[in-house]
Every structure is written in C-alpha cells, then in structure tokens.
Amino acid sequence: MNMYITLNSVGCVLDTETKLTHPQNKNGGFNKFDGESVHINECSNEWWQSLSYLDKLQVFKYKYANS
To answer: How many structural domains comprise the chain?
Structure first.
C-alpha cells in the first residue's frame, strides 16, 4: 500500500513504496501521472540541500527501508 509523505521544504510528495517524488500543486495536491516524477536516488544536490532537517529524516527513513 502506497503512503505519501509531504515534503514542504522542497514542494513535493514522496511515495514511500516506489520512492518517487511528485511535485505539489498550488492547492497542496499532486499528480503522480504528470511525467514529472523523480526517484529520490536521482534528485539533485540542490534538492537534497533544500530539504529541511525533519524532511530529511522522513526521506532517509524510507530511502533505506527494505534496501
């Protein structure tokens, strides 16, 4: 079952199952079928540096889960 975590510091949502990030819409929602998804292993250094401390904790929790 997919769980989605909002990463406000970088304006996206993380799918914890697929480990794909999806950009947030202005209304806070997201579209996982828009072709803009990026796997967390392919996110830029700028993206990683922009993550807040709390968002990094969430990402690392799922990035390394079951790997």
So the answer is: 1
